[in-house]
Every structure is written in C-alpha cells, then in structure tokens.
Write a structure and sequence with these properties.
Blueprint (H helix, E strand, L loop, with lengths): L2 E4 L3 H12 L6 E5 L14 H4 L14 H4 L2 E5 L3 E5 L4 E4 L4 E3 L2 E4 L3 E3 L12 E2 L4 H10 L5 E5 L3 H12 L3 E6 L11 H14 L2 E4 L3 E6 L5 E6 L4 E3 L2 E4 L3 E3 L2 H5 L8 E2 L11 E3 L4 E5 L4 E3 L4 H15 L11 E6 L2 E6 L7 E7 L6 E8 L2 E8 L2 H13 L5 H4 L6 H12 L1
Parallel strand pairs: 1-2, 1-7, 2-3, 7-19, 9-16, 10-11, 10-16, 11-12, 18-20
Antiparallel strand pairs: 4-5, 5-6, 8-17, 13-14, 14-15, 20-21, 22-23, 23-26, 24-25, 25-26
Helix pairs in contact: 1-8, 9-11
Length: 414
C-alpha cells in the first residue's frame, strides 16, 4: 500500500502526519508545488507584514519531521496528471508515482479581478510566502495603499499596512465587510470600528479600473462610483477559487470544489479530497459546503487518515474560525445563517471591545461570534460540538456564562 498526497499545505502535511500516527506502514509521499518546507499561511497577512524586518514564516513542522516520519516530501514539484485506472500520479519532471490511496489537498488560488489595468506593476495578491515577501518590502515605501475587498485577508492586510504608516483605502462592493461570514450586526460593528482605527473604508463601492502613474506603475484605483483614489500599492483580496482542475481532468465530479461524500471520498473510492479544495456534506451548513480555514484543513486531514486506516465514520467536526485585525481578535464558533436571531453580550465599545454575539435558531444557541473574548469562544466551541442546548432565555439570564454552563452541563452528564 502507498499514499500520495497532492498539496503541501496545512491539510496535506497533517494528512501525512496523521497516517503515520495511526500506524500507516506504507510509503507516504507529499507532492508540494512550492519549494522549501511547508509553512503556516495565516500569519502572512498579519504578523509577517506588521514587522517584515524581523518576522519569519512559521514552519508547520520542524525541518527534520518528514525524514523522521519517513515521509517523502517532494517540495517544488507539480502534479500534472492523475491516471485513476493505473492508480498513478505524473509529475512535471516525468516522475510517475503509484498510489493505493490518493489525497487531493490542492487548496485554492486567488480569484482574479477582470479589471482594466490589472497588469500594472504594484498590484498584488496575497496567498503565498513569495506574495507576502513582496508586499512586506513594498510597505517600506508605500504611502497610499488601496485594498480591494473587505474580507478577512483584505482587512488583515489593511490593518497591517495602517500600522506600517500607510494611508489605506478599502473598496468593498457589498454593503458591509466580511458579509459572507459574519452576521449583519457584527459586520456593521466592524465597519465603524475600522473607520475609527483610521481605515478609509468605502462600502457599496467596487473597483472599475486601475490607472498608471507617471512612473508607469499603478497610480490610481478608479471605483465603480467614478472616484479616483491615489494608489502606489494595491492588494486584491476578493476571495479564492478551489484548485480542482486536476480532479476534473481525471474525470472526478467538481462543483465549487472537488465533490466528496461524508467520509471525504470522491466518486472513486481510492481518491479523497480535503481542505480548501473539497466540497463536502456539512451538517452545520445544512448541505454541501466548501470551507476555507485552518480548522477545516487539519480536521479533514485527521479524518481522512482514519478512513484510509479503516474507519467508516462521517465527518461532523464543528467549524470555527479566527481573524486578527489590528486590536480586534475575531473568533467564530459554527457557521452563522442570515435568519439567525442575534444578541450582543458584553461591551462593544470600539475603544476596548470585549463582547460576543450569540446567534439563535428556533430559540436555541447555534453559533457565537466573539471579539476579544477568547473564553467565550472556547466555551462556545465545546458547547456546540457537544450538542448541549442553550436556550435564548437561559443565555440572557443575568450572570449567565458560557464557561459555567458548559461545566455544569458536563458535570451533570458525568
């Protein structure tokens, strides 16, 4: 038996580690397109950019890990084809790798803007270490920064650029920031809070074109309202697309990602997909879902290793997320829905916020968004993962605490 993993990010490396931890004795190979050791991506839009002179990318594992675990890490290699009939993977250099189990952990790529002027120097995306290195250096001299898109990556970069002394304009076509992930209540709160930090946040205003300055580099961003914003540096953060081309070319079903079942198998029982590239049945989202988070990547990886080792248990892990934007530590437990009833608990004063947004469905706690309240977040994850019901009436009782509620309920159950 042999396992081949295509993708050297969080999902791919964790899958290899979990196979070895579970006793997998056959060859394990990771095909990683980026050179060097696998690294953590989340800090690239946060700490790495805040102080580029001293920060360094954080490795996912120590430099000797793969050798010690007998994992063949092929860094700087690209998979160009999958032959499901012969159960082989072909690499760009012509190498052919046989597999018994194939794990597609191919991740996602930045969505490109169909915008005139996109080819001008000074316009960047942010996905890889190479992207972050270019942006970190560019921020040394950038005076006017324009960020297109007020999602997690856009706002993380915007606050880092603001801390480096740049004037930062954020253009967002939607009526509120992070609209796909947050409740409207918290999205509106973040809009006000970021403006108080000094971000020039423009909502209901997308990008129409980029114009060159006198030096031939990007000089202006023209919005959908016709306004021209000075820009010697632009970052586009308008979401990602799943890397599902390899799967599609191999004849596997794709639909906003690689379609898998509850065990993360594709229609081919020897091929799996995990992480950002996988469209999986998510009971917490109410149907097929593709999730871009470290939690999802690592939990998918652990689960698929168990399945390959013989387990047949559907994937049901609770989704959770985080984002650090300047002084605001945003954490979310479970996926919010548009119809959720929301209640603020704590102090939302932007000068020193410590609060949570409780989200109720049919009168029962279903999700929690927290700002600078890590205790609430951890307790909410435990409560929701355990299926403990907390009613709206109980949660709004004076003195109610998620941490206390979890301890009391688990004590009674024991």
């Amino acid at each position: 038996m042999s396992a081949v993993i295509i993708g050297g990010g969080q999902a791919g490396l964790q899958a290899a580690a979990s196979l070895r931890e579970g006793g997998y004795a056959g060859p394990v190979t990771i095909v990683a397109e980026e050179p060097g050791q696998p690294y953590q991506r989340p800090p690239l839009s946060k700490d790495y950019l805040k102080d580029h002179s001293s920060a360094a990318p954080l490795p996912l594992r120590g430099p000797a890990f793969c050798a010690e675990q007998d994992i063949d890490l092929r860094a700087g290699s690209a998979a160009t084809g999958v032959d499901r009939q012969s159960r082989t993977v072909t690499l760009a250099d012509g190498t052919v790798l046989p597999y018994t189990s194939l794990i597609l952990a191919t991740g996602a790529r930045n969505r490109e803007l169909p915008t005139p002027g996109l080819e001008l120097p000074g316009i960047h995306g942010l996905r890889t270490l190479a992207d972050a290195e270019q942006l970190g250096a560019a921020l040394d001299t950038a005076r006017n920064v324009v960020v297109v898109g007020a999602g997690f990556i856009g706002l993380e970069f915007a606050t880092a650029a603001l801390a480096r002394g740049s004037h930062v304009t954020v253009l967002e076509f939607a009526p509120r920031p992070m609209g796909r992930a947050l409740t409207p209540l918290l999205g509106d709160w973040f809009a006000d809070a970021h403006r108080q930090l000094g971000l020039d946040l423009r909502l209901n205003e997308g990008i129409a074109a980029f114009e060159a300055g006198d030096d031939g580099r990007v000089g202006f961003a023209v919005s959908t309202t016709g306004k021209r914003y000075p820009a010697d540096l632009v970052v586009a953060g308008v979401g990602v697309q799943p890397n599902d081309q390899l799967a599609a070319e191999a004849g596997l079903e794709t639909a906003n990602g690689i379609v898998v079942d509850a065990n993360l198998r594709t229609e081919d029982p020897d091929v799996y997909a995990i992480g950002d590239c996988a469209n999986f049945p998510c009971e917490h989202a109410g149907g097929p879902f593709r999730l871009e988070s470290v939690q999802n990547a690592t939990d998918h990886a652990r689960h698929v290793a168990k399945v390959i080792l013989g387990a047949e248990v559907p994937y049901r892990e609770l989704p959770w997320f985080w984002s650090t934007q300047g002084p605001f530590r945003l954490q979310m437990a479970n996926i919010v829905r548009a119809q959720d009833e929301t209640v603020v608990v704590g102090d939302p004063d932007p000068a020193n916020p410590k609060f949570s947004v409780f989200c109720f469905r049919d009168g029962v706690l279903a999700a929690v968004e927290s700002v600078n309240q890590p205790g609430d977040h951890l307790a909410a994850r435990k409560i929701l993962a355990a299926g403990i019901e907390v009613s709206r009436e109980e949660a709004l009782t004076e003195g109610f605490s998620l941490r206390t509620a979890y301890k009391e309920r688990t004590r009674v159950a024991a």
